[in-house]
Model the fold of this input.
Amino acid sequence: MRKIKKNGSAQVLILAALAIALIISSTQLYVFQLSQVSSGGNPFSPQDFVRIVKLGSRNLMIGLLANISHGGNSQALENSLERWASFVEGNYHFGESSLKSDLCVNTPYSSGLWISWEESGSGVTSVKADFHMNLTSKDVTMNVDYSVNITTYIFISGTSTYVNATHKRINVKSTLCNEGAYALVKNLTVYYRMSTDWLNAGLIDGYSLEDFGNGTYRSSFVIESLDPVEILVQSYDRRDIFVRANATCTDS
Amino acid sequence: MILKNRDGQVRALEALLASAVVFSALLVTVPIRMSLDNSRDRELLYTVGLNMLIELDRDGELGNLIAKNDWTTLSKRLSILLPLGVAYNLTVYDENMGVVNSVPVSGGGTLVNDVLSIQYPLAERTSCQFYVIRLQLSWMK
Done:
């Protein structure tokens, strides 16, 4: 009788190969599924949308504040924010979104605005609103609250020194801030008061404006005056927001 | 003389079969890996495109260029900010979804397959108008 060979090494080898193949396939599938979960098939995320809307809200309020500070209608603030909310809601394509805004009414703000140009030594042009955003999509529900505050400050001080019996040298120091940080101006004009008129100091021969590069500027000019000199500084920041302040020069 | 013992040949066949099984597993998973790579490419492209738009919009420059219809400068900015090997096409829509850009704002070559689209709602500062920007991007293969 012929002896049947019992050596099963072939089956073991094939089984081992099958096991390796299975491990390779399952590992690849696992990694793929993980990546699908993390990316969701579409790289767009609600967080990105929130980021875009926050930036848009900020840009819109800068534009509105610039317009209002130039003499535009302050009622446009509320209307434009409503338009923006409606625009944002219509451009979220991954579910439903809602955006609500509340203009700040806490002192010193009124209907979202704080414009103070009459205080001696400083001027403020500011807008503030709180936003609430809700995004609902298949997998995510997000509620985001954020606040936008755009503020341009100017601080001024002036000194006067007699250069002779009738003439004074006026030095005006102006500092501009955006949201509390020093900022550069787009334009800065210094005026001085002569009886009831405000005259542009920039038109005087020998007027100089020194830019320290850190939001601080020094203007210097000589005028004929025996009385304390009143000065007025008007400025546009780089965002085109207008602010002004007045002060009386101190003798030094 | 013909060898009667065929053990060696059988072993060789077994080894061949075993390696065929392993390599077929590798071959089967290649499309999955390619798909994974594409997905990562798309994520990277999306991040690059979105960050570029946000950077341009941060100081209001994007809205300013659109308000001034300065498509040449806008195209130059995009070409500078996007990495080499990325083709783009930008379309600006107004609030009523009418196309605003009178000339194509594109560069980097022709958009090929697997085009990624980014929709970006924008508020412009000078006239407080709203726009939707659609930026299409693709890697040049």
Remarks:
- Chain B has three helices and four strands.
- Chain B has one domain: 7-139.
